[in-house]
Known about the structure:
The chain is of the alpha/beta class. It has 2 domains: 5-181, Rossmann fold (3-Layer(aba) Sandwich); 189-278, N-(1-d-carboxylethyl)-l-norvaline Dehydrogenase, domain 2, CATH 1.10.1040.10. Helices cover 45% and strands 16% of the residues. The protein has helices at 13-24, 36-55, 63-69, 94-107, 123-127, 161-173, 189-205, 211-222, 228-235, 237-251, 260-267, and strands at 5-9, 28-32, 71-74, 85-88, 113-116, 136-141, 150-155, 177-181, 281-283, 286-288. The strands form 2 sheets. It has an 8-stranded mixed β-sheet, sandwiched between helices. A two-stranded antiparallel sheet has the order 9-10. It starts with a strand and ends with a strand. The model has no long low-confidence stretch (mean pLDDT 96).
Amino acid sequence: xxxxxxxxxxxxxxxxxxxxxxxxxxxxxxxxxxxxxxxxxxxxxxxxxxxxxxxxxxxxxxxxxxxxxxxxxxxxxxxxxxxxxxxxxxxxxxxxxxxxxxxxxxxxxxxxxxxxxxxxxxxxxxxxxxxxxxxxxxxxxxxxxxxxxxxxxxxxxxxxxxxxxxxxxxxxxxxxxxxxxxxxxxxxxxxxxxxxxxxxxxxxxxxxxxxxxxxxxxxxxxxxxxxxxxxxxxxxxxxxxxxxxxxxxxxxxxxxxxxxxxxxxxxxxxxxxxxxxxxxxxxxxxxxxx
Length: 290
C-alpha cells in the first residue's frame, strides 16, 4: 500500500514534529487538534525548528515554504477522512486515546491504517476500540521526532502483515530506522529507559547523589548524551509518571513503582522544561543555574 496523505492527531511537541518529518519527506499532511490555539502553537514550533535548520545549513531556505504548504492544520477530525494513514500523537492518557480511535474508526475509510505514537500503552488495548484491529499498529517516534532516527514499531495480536510492512516502509521513507517490539507495556524503549530514569530519581530522593552528580556520572561514565534527570525534564515529568504507572499496572512488579519524589514534583506542577521547573530550572527552554 502506498501512503499518499498522512493524518496526525495532536499538534503538541510530538505531533507537530511528526507532521514536519512527513512534510519534509514530500508527503501531504493533515494536522488535527481540538483548537486553533493548539494548532497555532504546533505550527509555530515546527516553523521555528525549520528556521534553526536553515541557520545551521541543514535545510535550504527555499524548502521551508514548500514544506509548510504540505501541512493543512484543522480542528475538524472529519478532515482525516481523506488520509490513508493516521498517526495519533495525543496526550499519554488511555481514555483520551481510546476515544480518538473510536472516532477515527468511525470516520476513516476501511483501508486506512490507524497508528498510535503511544509511549507505553499496549497496542492491543487501543486496537480493541476499533472494528479494524488488523489495521491498527504502534508507531512510536522518539523525541524530537524530526531529529531522532528511531521509530519503534509494535504490532498487536491482530495486526496484518500488510499493515506492518506499510508502516515499516513509511518509516524508512521518513528517513527513520524502524525496529520491532512485541506488544508489552512500555515496549522495549520505555521499559528500559523509564526504569533507569526512575532509579535515578530514587538515587536523588535517597540522597545518594546530587542531581548534577547523577547526570554527570551517567553522561561521562556511561556516555549518555543527556543525564537521566535532565532527560526526564525534557520528556515531561507528568509523561514519565504516566509511563511508569502503565508499567507498574501492566506488570505488577514493584521495580516499576514511581518514585515518591516524582509524584511530589508532578503534584506541585514541576513538570520539567514545559513548566519552567522540574529537577532543574528553565527559562525559554534553557537550563538555568539555581
